[in-house]
C-alpha cells in the first residue's frame, strides 16, 4: 500500500507544543518518533476553511485544484496519492531586476607593491521573474557563480549597480531579502551523522520556532520529503544518501520555510543523467508554483536545457544572451551562427561562447546588450547613472521592433503584479524562528546527537589521554616524593602541560574548518544566529576536554607519586584543566582565522613558542624585548601553577633515599629558587588564564561573524 494512504486512514491527534520547555522535550521525542517517516499522522483531512484561508501549516501543502477538478477533499488519484497532487502554498510573486552590476576584486600585486583592482562582472543587466526557472550558463570562469552570489546577497563588498526586488531597491546584503530567499551552494554541506528526519526536524524547529505544534511540523516534514521523493529515506543517515538525494535533501531543508526565491549553485554537478533530470524537474515544479528559481548549470543535455524557461548566459563577465530558452537559437541564428542539426543547443551556445566556428564573441555580447535595451528603452526611464550604456545603446541605433513591443507589454503586466506585497503574507507568517535560547538548546542537542553517533572520535580522545597518562606514569613512576628525582618530576610536569596544551588545541583547531561550509549555509539561510551556535559548540567541547584532562591528571598524578593531599591535587588539576581550556580557546581562534594548511602548523608553533617561557627560563634571563611574552604566556601561568602546587605552598622536606649521600633539593624551596619560581602568585596566574580564554572566545566570535557577514 502506498505509504501515504496508510497515513490518511490512521490520523494521529495533534500534539500542540506551545511552551518552549515542553517543546524542547518534544524535540527529542520528535526526533525519535519521526525517525520513521513512514509511520506518522494523517493530516490530510485538514482542509482550507470556508473563507479559503488555511487553518494550519498542514494546508501549506495542499491539493492542486486543477488536478482534482476543484474537489479539495479528494486525496487520491484513482486510489493512489501522486507527488504532483501536492504543491507548496503560492507565495507573492517576487521579481528581481538588476542593472549595471559590476564586481571588483582587489588583489595585492607583489611586483608593484600595491593593491590592484580587477573587474570580474562588467555591468550586467537583466531580470529573474517569478514562476520561471532560470539557468545561468557560461564557460568556466565566466562569472556565473559570482553573479549568483551577488543576486543571493551572499557577496556584497566590491559590488556596484542596482538590484530591485518587486520594484524596490535592495541593498547588496539586505537582511529582509534573505528572509524571502534561500541559497543552496554547490557543496551540499549537510550534517553526515544525522538521519534525514533528524536533519529536517532540527531545521523545522529552528526555522519555524515553537508557535506551531509538533504534529503539524511532523506532517510538514513528511510531505516535503514525500514531494522530494525522500519519504523512504527518513531513517537513512545523510552520509548514506546518494548525490542526487543529498541535493534533494538540501532543497527540502530550505523548503521548510517555503521561500519564494531559490538560488542554487550548480545543483546538478556530480549527478547522473536521471538524477539531473529529477532535480531540474523538481525545480521546474517549484517554479511553476510561483517561485523565482535561479540556478547555475554547466552544459545540460538537450532535454534538461528545454526544461528551463529563461536563460542568462555570461561570458567573460558580460551578458552573452538573456531571454527565453527557446529564443536562444533564433538569436544566434540572426547573428549568422546556425546550430547544426541534431546538435545540443546548450553545447552549441557554449561553443559559440568560446569562439568556436570562428564566432565573434564581442559581436554576440553587443547584440545581447542591444536586445536588452530594445526591450528596456520602451518600458523604463533609463537612470542617469547608466550614461555609458545609454551611449552604447545609441551607438547601435536601436529601431522599433514587434518583438520588443510585445516584451514591453509583458513587462508592464508584470510590473502591475509586482505592486503586490514584498512581505511574507501567508500562513508562514504565524511562525517565528526559534528564540536564541531555543536555538542554543536545539543546536546543543544536535551536536550531542552527532557526537554520540560519531563516538569513535570521542573514544580515541579519551583512550589517548589514558594511554599517555599511563606511559608517563610508568616512565616517571614514584618520582614525586623523592628529593633526588626532582628534575625527573620537573620534566613530567612540563610534559603534562605540553600534553594538556596540545590535546586541548589540536582537538578543535580544525572544528570550524570542517564546519565552515555547513555553518555558512545554515547561517546565511537564517537558521540561527552565531551566538547560540558558538555557545552550543563550547558547551559540548569544554566538558569533553575537562573530562579528558582529568583522566590524564588522575592516572599520571598518582602513578608518579605526586599525591600529597587533596588540596594540592585540586590545585594541580585546576591549573591543568585551565591550561588545556585556554589552549582550546586558542585552537578555536586559530582554526576560525586561518586556512587549514596554516592552522595545522601555526597552532603547534604558537604552543611551542609560549611553552618555553617558564620552563628552564628564568624571567631575569629573558631578553627584554621578549619579556612581554612571559607575562602573557598562559603556558607559563599554568606551568607555574602546577609547579607551585607540587613544590610550593610550604611543602616540607622531600624524601632523600638512604642510598644517596646528598640530596641538594631536599628542601623544595631551593629548587623553586633555582627555577626562579619561589614567589608564584597563583591567583594572578589563574586570572590571566581566564582573561586569555575570554579574549580568545570573543576574538573567535568576531572572526566568525566577519567571515559569515562580510563577503
Ligand atoms: N574573490 C575573488 N578574487 C579573485 N578572483 C575572483 C574572485 N571571485 C571570482 N574571481 C574570478 O572571477 C572569475 C569568475 O569566477 P566564477 O566563480 O564566478 O566563475 P564561474 O563561471 O562560476 O566558473 P565555474 O563554472 O568554473 O565555477 C574567475 O576567473 C575567478 O577567478
From TrEMBL:
Q: Which GO terms describe its molecular function?
A: ABC-type transporter activity; ATP binding; ATP hydrolysis activity
User: Entry's Pfam families?
Assistant: ABC2_membrane (PF01061), ABC_tran (PF00005)
What membrane topology does the UniProt entry give? Multi-pass membrane protein
Residue ranges, annotated region (Disordered): 1-20, 55-76
List the SUPFAM superfamilies hit by this protein, alphabetically: P-loop containing nucleoside triphosphate hydrolases
The source's superkingdom equals Eukaryota
Q: Does the keyword Ion transport apply?
A: no
Compartment annotation = Membrane
Q: InterPro entries of this UniProt entry? A: AAA+_ATPase, ABC2_TM, ABC_transporter-like_ATP-bd, ABC_transporter-like_CS, ABCG_transporters, P-loop_NTPase
What residue intervals traverse the membrane? 455-479, 491-512, 533-559, 571-591, 598-620, 686-706
Which ranges carry the ABC transporter domain?
Answer: 105-341
Q: What is its main location?
A: membrane
**What are the record's GO terms for cellular component?**
plasma membrane
Does Repressor count among this protein's keywords?
no
Q: Which UniProt keywords apply?
A: ATP-binding, Membrane, Nucleotide-binding, Transmembrane, Transmembrane helix, Transport
Name the protein family.
Answer: Belongs to the ABC transporter superfamily. ABCG family. Eye pigment precursor importer (TC 3.A.1.204) subfamily.
- Name recorded for this polypeptide: ABC transporter domain-containing protein
Taxonomic lineage is: Eukaryota, Metazoa, Ecdysozoa, Arthropoda, Hexapoda
